[in-house]
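On to my pick:
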Amino acid sequence: MAMQEATQSNKLTRDECWKLVNQAVNAALKEAFEKIFTHPFTRELKDGTLPIECIRGWLLNTYAWSLEINMSLPYRYYLFNHMLNQRPDLLELLADRYADEFVTPVRGGHQRTLDALGKALGLEKKELHEYRPLAAMRSMLDSNVWALEVNLQFGIGNTTEEWFGKWCWIWYQSLTKHYGISDEGAYYFRLHSEADNFGEHEGGETIGHEVMGHAEGNRYITVRMLEDGFVKPEALKDMVLRSSSVERYLSFLDAVYYTYHPAKKMSELEQFYR
C-alpha cells in the first residue's frame, strides 16, 4: 500500500495541521483518562492497596511488550526508507528515539530498567525472560506491532506513549510511597514519565544530546504526515483514536487484575462472561 502525497493546491498549513492534530490527540487522551486512569487496577495502585501479585503479574507480561515493541522499531526504518530520506527532520527524530530506547540509561536501554524493577519485586531474570504472557497481552502486542509497522501507517496518530507516560508517574509515586520500592527499582516509570512527555528528554544525553519527548515527537510525525497529505483531515480523529491502544490496554488491565488478584481471581472463561 503506497503512501500518496497531497497535491500542492490542497495542502494544509503547518499551523492548521497542528490545530487538527492537537484536537484529535486530546480527544484520545480524554478517553484514556476516563478508562485507564479510572480502572480498579489504577485506583488501587494509586491508593497503595493493589496486591503485589497484580504488580508482579503486570511486569511479567509487560517485559515481553517492552522488548518486542522496541525490537520492531528498526523495521520501520526499512519500510519507510525512501520517505524518510526525503524528510531529514523525521529521519533525525526517529534515529534519536531508537537510539534512546536502546542505550538510555545504559546499553540495553529501557529494557534494563525493567530488570531493576523485577529485582525489586523479587522476580528472577529467567522468569521475566521465559514467562508466557496472557492472551490479552499477546493479542495487544501483536496487533500493535502490526498496526504500527506492517500496515504502513508509520505510527501516525500514536498517542499510546503520551497517556502511558502520564500513567507511569502514578506508578512511580505509588511504588516509592506505598510499596517500599527505591528510586532505582522504580526508575522505569520515572524514565517513561519523562521520555514519553513533551519537551526535551534529558536522559537522552546518553546518546550525546537531548532528544525530543516522545509525546511531542508523535504529534509532530502526525502533523508532518497530515501536512504532506498522507492522512486526510476527515480521517484523522478516527485514526488517532484507533491508534491510542486504550481499548486494547483496558482488556489487558482487566486480564491482569482478574488473573492475579488473590481476592478477585477469575478463570479465563469467567473473565470472558464478566
